Automatic annotation (TrEMBL):
Protein name stated in the entry: C2H2-type domain-containing protein
Disordered, as annotated region: 44-80, 95-120
UniProt cross-references to Pfam families, sorted A to Z: Plavaka
Lineage start: Eukaryota, Fungi, Dikarya, Basidiomycota, Agaricomycotina
Species per Swiss-Prot/TrEMBL record: Pisolithus microcarpus 441
């Protein structure tokens, strides 16, 4: 279940950043947010007048302290906020400081950790005004195709395994146990599973539906070691790869990322004047905005992120190592990807 939700429409959203984007883009929720800020502003204004009345009757030393600021335009009611091209032209009001501020030194038992920022405030968004991310049509995603195929076949959602318990056992064996140990385990009369040995188990695993297909080609690699005849050693290696375009399509079509995706650039600010730029997600970067303007109308930017690291292939491969290249896209929120 999503860990966050919008305070106004109660829509569940998987990330805090997603909540902020939702409020910035939903007219109804944005309107309610405006009302909250207006109420905060009016409350702050009333508090100012109350403080002023109290100051008139307070001891002279306190009045003098406030008289020093007379004539200045730094009050909350005198904020001169310039109107800019932001979608939300809002004013943010701070709570009035107490006359006797608490000590900054934490006492025993105090929780000194900062309170998390509100999910519904402190973010002003400027939407991209050009033509971007036009919908050309609709068709089933890879995951919907898989689901339709399962429903058509009439099989269980845990197929080829018998049930959820066998599925979970298979996942555990695949991640943690070697082939010999799997054979030893399956010889136990208490196992009660539908596959008799490791070979049958791996056939089950290979029959599972996957995303983009893998292809293999042999490559000739020249090493840095020298053979006895003085020549440089060479080695034939397997290169397994997937079509990167199909990988991007699968990521975009994955329903798990539906509420954590962005297709259009935006500029985010911490203030209504647009002076304090927020760079948190990739689509808030200036380069995305600039690239979008160079593309044909309606196009969508899908930034590809690549990384690589040495890793063990699996428990079935002994001490062999591989250097997989991981691929994701910047359209997915950083909290998820």
């Amino acid at each position: 279940m999503p860990a966050h939700r919008c305070d106004y429409c109660l829509k569940p959203i998987s990330t805090l950043a997603g909540v902020k984007r939702h409020i910035a883009q939903s007219a109804a929720c944005q309107q309610q947010w405006n009302r909250v800020l207006e109420h905060t502003a009016s409350t702050a204004s009333v508090d100012d007048h109350q403080i002023g009345d109290e100051m008139d009757n307070a001891p002279g030393i306190v009045s003098d302290q406030y008289d020093e600021s007379d004539g200045n335009d730094s009050g909350r009611d005198n904020l001169d906020i310039q109107e800019g091209p932001l979608v939300q032209q809002l004013q943010s009001y701070a709570e009035p400081e107490p006359l006797n501020p608490p000590s900054r030194h934490a006492s025993v038992g105090d929780d000194v950790e900062d309170e998390p920022a509100s999910a519904n405030g402190g973010r002003f968004v400027e939407q991209y005004t050009g033509a971007a991310a036009h919908i050309l049509g609709s068709w089933p995603t890879v995951f919907e195709d898989m689901e339709n195929a399962e429903n058509t076949s009439g099989g269980s959602q845990w197929a080829p395994f018998q049930n959820e318990e066998e599925w979970e056992l298979a996942r555990f064996l695949m991640k943690n146990v070697g082939q010999t140990k799997i054979d030893d385990f399956l010889k136990l009369s208490l196992s009660g599973v539908s596959f008799a040995n490791a070979h049958a188990f791996l056939k089950y695993v290979d029959s599972l539906r996957t995303g983009p297909a893998w292809t293999c080609e042999m490559i000739d690699v020249v090493g840095d070691a020298v053979a006895e005849d003085g020549s440089t050693r060479r080695e034939q290696l397997e290169l397994w790869r997937r079509d990167p375009v199909e990988c991007v399509m699968e990521l975009i079509g994955n329903p798990a990322f539906r509420d954590a995706m962005a297709y259009v650039p935006e500029r985010a600010y911490a203030d209504s004047e647009g002076k304090n730029h927020i760079y948190d997600e990739m689509w808030t970067a200036d380069w995305w905005w600039d690239v979008q303007g160079k593309l044909p109308a309606g196009a969508t930017v899908a930034p590809v992120i690549l990384s690589s690291d040495k890793t063990s292939l699996s428990v079935f491969s002994g001490d062999k190592k591989a250097w997989p290249v991981y691929l994701t896209i910047g359209n997915i929120s950083k909290d998820i990807r």
